[in-house]
Every structure is written in structure tokens, then in C-alpha cells.
Write a structure and sequence with these properties.
Layout: H1 3-13, E1 16-21, H2 23-26, E2 27-28, E3 31-32, H3 34-49, E4 53-58, H4 61-66, H5 78-102, E5 107-112, H6 114-118, H7 120-135, E6 139-144, H8 158-169, E7 173-178, E8 183-184, E9 196-197, E10 199-200, H9 208-211, H10 223-236, E11 240-244, H11 250-255, E12 262-264, H12 273-280, E13 286-290, H13 292-301, E14 310-315, E15 322-327, E16 332-337, H14 342-348, H15 356-360, E17 374-376
Parallel strand pairs: 1-4, 1-7, 4-6, 5-6, 7-11, 10-12, 13-15
Antiparallel strand pairs: 2-3, 8-9, 11-12, 13-14, 15-16, 16-17
Helix pairs in contact: 3-5, 8-10
């Protein structure tokens, strides 16, 4: 099957779609772009009428609140930005609610922090709530809970949040609306010869740092964060479509067969949803540096990581915490759950599995990281 026919078939068969819209698309210098919200609601209502479940991940709360701050105070620190979000979120949701109501649709507000998805029980609660809303044919509108989020609990940007929501709702398509026309082979702001990419067949082969740099003026992300989100979606087996969100009726045109934006093909073999959750809901607590033999065994053989292939350990992690697996030259290979604490890992690194018990006095695991708890090529 050609990539074009695959795209058309996926669009025609999509039953649950996550749509992400950023601040740079949704707002202007005057605040919320009401005309754009109306066009967006019109397009999503058409999909909804076809029986498609819609989940909307929307930025814009801080930008929406900026114009309503009394006294003209500046957003020069975290409390000010969080306060602006508290002002703007209600205004943003009011506009969404009123606009979608005109199309006979009910919306719901879902505000999340990373902590809500990091703990398994709360993750499952979020999944059950969103599942029931979609069962009721309600459109959940999700945003980060900026008012209470602290740095270590932030998603960082709503591209990251959307990539995690794909797993929560078990979506089969990700549409990312951005201020650009799609993905280019280099930064078009710096390279006038940059060429648009209609399709990316293997996102893992791209050097995202070289292709994408910088952030948008009003948002917290940029093309790098959108490509990282697409990288994660590909691992989950979900295709991504990056579109110019400001172009009139762009979603409708795409579903009518127009070849717009950049289509990012998912991996043929997707990772399990459990591995995805393990890898992307916690920050790595340390690094395991491995030799060339271990790297080959992981990448080519699908093996577990054994202590014999570890040459160094950084960080102070406990057994069961997430760690990064990197090569001697600093290339990230994988993330996974450590079978041993950092202290024990330093004692057994470079040793054969049969030597673990003589060194530690016990050997609960022959591996440093079992392959069932290991995700290769993680987009952190």
C-alpha cells in the first residue's frame, strides 16, 4: 500500500482523534481568535456527526488572560503566569462551550498536571472519566492545569500533553494544528532553501535538533516539541498530521482528500501501552552508560540490559525507578526501570549475571533492566 492510500484509508477509518491547537494559532495580540474557534468547531462538528470521537487539547489560557489583567501587570514570573492562566482559562472555556453549543455539541473541561498521569491509579481514573465522556458523545477539552502546576509536575508544553493523551484515550489519529504550513527539512526562518515535507516515513531517522529549533512567541513549544510528540505517537502506532491551523477549513479540506500539511507514518510495530506509560510519565533519575556490545544487543537483538555491559552509573536512583541508557559518547539509546539501586548497580556493573549474588549476597534479577521494562529510542 502506498503512503498516499495509507493516509486516505487512515483518515477515512479514524474513529477517535486527538486534535491539538496551540496559542500561536488560537490567539492574536487582542486575545482569543473567536472566528478561528468558530471554524474549528464547525469542522470538528462535521467529524463528530460522522461518528468520530473528538478530544481537543487546547493551549491559550495564559494568552487569553493576558489582556484581562487589571492594572496592566506584566507576566514576569511564574505566579503571574499562573494567575493569568486562572483568568484566561474560564474565558477560553466559555468561548469553546458557547461555540460548540451552536452546533448542538456539549464540551467538558479537563485540567491535568503531569502528576495526574504519573500515578497509575490517577491515570486510570483519568482514562475512565475520558472514556465515559466520549461514550456520552461529549467533546473533552484538555489543558494543563497551569494554576497549580510546579516545574517538576509540568508537561512543559501541550504537544507533550497531547502525546500522552493519545495513550490515555487510545486514539488512532493525532492532528497537530500549528502556525506553520507543516514540517520542513530545516528551519525555514533561517534557511530560505528549506523544503516542505509532505510525508515522513520514518521519524526515528531524522535529526530533530538540526531540523527544528526555537519556540513560538506566545507558546511554550515549537516545531521540535511537535516532532517529539509525533515521534512518541509513531511508537504508539498512531499517525500524526501536522497542519497549518490558521488556514481556513484546513481539517475539512484534509478529510475531503486535499494533500495538506505533513503526514508522519507510525511504526509498523508499536510499543505496548504499558511501556509507553512507564517511559513517558516520569523523568529519568539517572543514567546507565553502556559499552558497544550492550548497545548492539539492545538495538539489534531485542535483549535485556545485563550488568556486564554497563561501564558507569550516574545519579542516585532506587530499584524500580526510571533510568536512561546511554552510550559512552552520550547518545541516548533507551529508558527503562532499573532492577537495582544506583549503589548496587555500581557494585555489579561490568560483572556477569552469575557474579551478582557473590557481590550483593542476593540475586533477585539477572538483568540490570529487563526488556519488558525497556523502551528503545525514547523521545524524552
Amino acid at each position: 500500500m502506498s503512503r498516499t492510500s495509507n493516509r486516505i484509508e487512515t483518515l477515512n477509518n479514524a474513529k477517535r482523534i486527538v486534535v491539538k491547537i496551540g496559542s500561536a494559532v488560537l490567539t492574536t495580540s487582542e486575545g482569543i481568535n473567536l472566528g478561528l474557534i468558530c471554524r474549528l468547531a464547525d469542522q470538528l462538528a462535521t467529524l463528530h456527526e460522522r461518528g468520530v470521537d473528538i478530544v481537543l487539547v487546547s493551549s491559550g489560557a495564559v494568552a487569553a488572560g493576558r489582556r484581562s489583567i487589571p492594572g496592566g501587570h506584566k507576566l514576569d514570573d511564574l505566579p503571574a503566569r499562573q494567575a493569568a492562566s486562572a483568568i484566561g482559562q474560564s474565558r477560553l472555556m466559555h468561548e469553546y462551550d458557547e461555540t460548540f453549543r451552536r452546533f448542538g455539541l456539549v464540551t467538558s473541561q479537563v485540567l491535568l498536571t503531569r502528576d495526574d498521569l504519573r500515578h497509575r491509579s490517577r491515570f486510570l481514573n483519568a482514562r475512565n472519566t475520558l472514556s465515559r465522556l466520549l461514550e456520552w458523545r461529549v467533546i473533552p477539552i484538555i489543558n494543563e492545569n497551569d494554576t497549580v502546576a510546579v516545574q517538576e509536575l509540568e508537561f512543559g508544553d501541550n504537544d507533550t500533553l497531547a502525546s500522552l493523551i493519545l495513550n490515555v484515550v487510545e486514539a488512532d489519529l493525532f492532528i497537530n494544528l500549528t502556525s506553520a504550513a507543516g514540517v520542513y527539512d530545516s528551519n525555514p526562518d533561517k534557511n530560505p532553501e528549506a523544503k516542505p515535507l509532505a510525508c515522513i516515513e520514518n521519524i526515528h531517522d531524522l535529526d530533530l535538533d538540526a531540523m527544528c529549533d526555537g519556540k513560538t512567541a506566545v507558546g511554550s513549544g515549537g516545531m521540535f516539541s511537535k516532532m517529539r510528540a509525533a515521534h512518541r505517537a509513531a511508537q504508539l502506532g498512531v499517525p500524526t498530521l501536522i497542519l497549518a491551523g490558521k488556514e481556513r477549513m484546513i481539517i475539512e479540506r484534509v478529510f475531503n482528500g486535499e494533500d495538506c500539511g505533513t503526514w508522519i507514518v507510525p511504526d509498523e510495530k508499536s510499543v505496548s501501552r504499558r511501556k509507553y506509560w512507564l517511559a513517558y510519565h516520569c523523568d529519568p533519575a539517572g543514567d546507565l552508560i553502556i559499552d558497544a556490545g550492550a548497545e548492539k544487543a539492545l538495538l539489534s537483538g531485542g535483549k535485556s540490559l545485563l550488568p556486564a555491559g554497563i561501564t558507569d552509573v550516574t545519579g542516585d536512583f532506587k530499584a524500580g525507578e526510571l533510568v536512561r541508557v546511554v552510550t559512552a559518547d552520550g547518545k541516548s539509546v533507551a529508558v527503562g526501570l532499573a532492577c537495582y539501586s544506583a549503589g548496587d548497580m555500581r557494585r555489579i556493573m561490568g560483572s556477569k549475571s552469575c557474579d551478582i549474588e557473590p557481590i550483593l549476597g542476593k540475586c533477585p534479577y539477572p538483568e540490570a533492566i529487563h526488556r519488558d521494562n525497556l523502551l528503545l529510542d525514547a523521545a524524552l
